[in-house]
Amino acid sequence: MKEAILYDRLSGNKVRCNICQRRCEIPEGKRGYCWTRLNQKGELYSLAYGRVSFMSVAPIEKKPLYHFYPGSFAMSFGTLGCNFRCPGCQNWDIAHAKIDLDGGQTEYVSPEDSIKLAKRHGCEGMSWTYNEPSIWFEYTLDGARLSKKANLYTTYVTNGYITCEALDMIGPYLDAFRVDLKGFSKDLYKKIANLSDFRGILDVTKRAKDKWRMWVEIVTNIIPGYSDDETHLRKIASWIVKDLGEDTPWHVTQFIPHLKLKNLSPTPVATLERARGIGQDVGLRWVYIGNIPGHPGQNTYCPECNELLIERYDFGPVQNMLAPGGKCQNCGVEIPGRFH
Ligand code: SF4
Questions:
Q1: Beta-carbon neighbour count of residue 6 at 10 Å?
Q2: Confidence at residue 247, expressed as pLDDT on a 0 to 100 scale
Q3: DSSP letter, residue 265
Q4: N or C: which end of the chain has fewer CB within 10 A?
Q5: Residue nearest to atom 6 of ligand 1 (CA)
Q6: What is this structure's pTM?
Q7: What is the tens place of the pLDDT at every residue in 11-34?
C-alpha cells in the first residue's frame, strides 16, 4: 500500500479522494467507488500502486491512436478496478474486479522496472490502459516522470473523469490523452457509467489539449439502442470540432456485445459508416471506423490530394507512406499529429 496523494482529511476520520470527479467521501475502513483506495485510520492509501493485472507490448494503433507515432509500440499496463462500471465493458474481467488487500491476482512491477521492460522490448513509449489509468494515479505519475527521463512517450487511455487538479499534476509528463466519449447526454452517462453529469469529462479533455498540449484522440463505441441516434452523434462530433478542433481524430467503433449487454447485436457497419458521415458533415477531417478489420475507414488519406498515406488492417499499419515529419509524400501537405 502507498499513501495516496490529492485527498482531504475530513471530520470523523473520513477522507475525500480528489483523483477523479466522483470525489468519494470514504469512511474509515472503507474503500472508494473504484475499490483501489482505502481509508485506513483517517489516511487514504492506494492498493493498486504497481499492481499490474495485465501488460503487453502493443501497437499504438490498438489504443487507438492513429496520428501519434504510427507503427510504434507502447509498453502497456493495466491494474484492477475502475471508477466506472459500464454494463458492456470489454475489459470487465479486470475493470470490474476488486483488488485484494495484498494485491493478489496481480504482479508487482515497480515504475523503474516498467521502464526497463519498455526498453528491453524496443518500445518507443508507455501506455496506461485496459482499465481507467487515473485509479492508480500515483503509479502512473511516477512512471510518466521516469518515462520522460528515459525518452519514452506517454499515453493515457482514459474515460476522462480525472479531476483537473490530478490532470495538472501529470500534465507535464503526458504526451497523449485518448478519451472515451461514450455519449452526449446525462441520461446516457447515468445508464452507462452511473454519473450524474458528464460535462467535467469535456472540460478535462479540453484542458489536456489547451493547457498541456497533449495529443488528443476521441473514441465513441457506438452501442445499438444507446448511442447510435443521429442527434446524439452529431452533438459529439460538433463538440469535438468546436472545442478540440477539426483536426482531432474521432474513432467510431463497433460495439461487441459483452456482459450485461450481451443480448445486443454488434453495431452494424452501416451505422458506423453513417456516424463517420455525420462527423465529416460537421467538419471533422479525421473520422475513423474501428473494430472492422480491412474497412477503408481505418486508413488515413491526404485531405488535399486523397493519396493513401497509412493503410491499416486491424491493429497495425500495413503500410505507412507518410514522408518524414508526417507529410503527404505526394503533395507535401502536413498531417496533424505527432510523427517521427
Ligand atoms: S479515484 Fe476511486 S476513490 Fe478516488 S474519487 Fe475516483 S472512484 Fe473515488
A1: 17
A2: 98
A3: P
A4: C
A5: 20
A6: 0.97
A7: 999 999 999 999 999 999 999 999
| Sequence spans of domains, the chain | 2-46, 51-288, 299-340
278, three cell numbers: 455525420
Give yes or no for residue 272 CB within 6 A of ligand 1. Answer: no
Helix (H, G, I), strand (E, B) or coil at 40: strand
Q: Does 241 contact ligand 1 (Cβ within 6 A)?
A: no
Distance 63 CA to ligand 1 centre (A): 23
In single-letter form, the type of residue at position 165 comes to E
Separation of CA 7 and ligand 1 centre (Å): 10
Length in residues, the chain: 340
DSSP string, 65-124: -SSBSTT-EEEEEE-S--S---TT-TTHHHHTPPPPTT-TTSEE--HHHHHHHHHHTT-S
Residue nearest to atom 2 of ligand 1 (CA): 34
Pairing of strands 153-158, 176-180: parallel
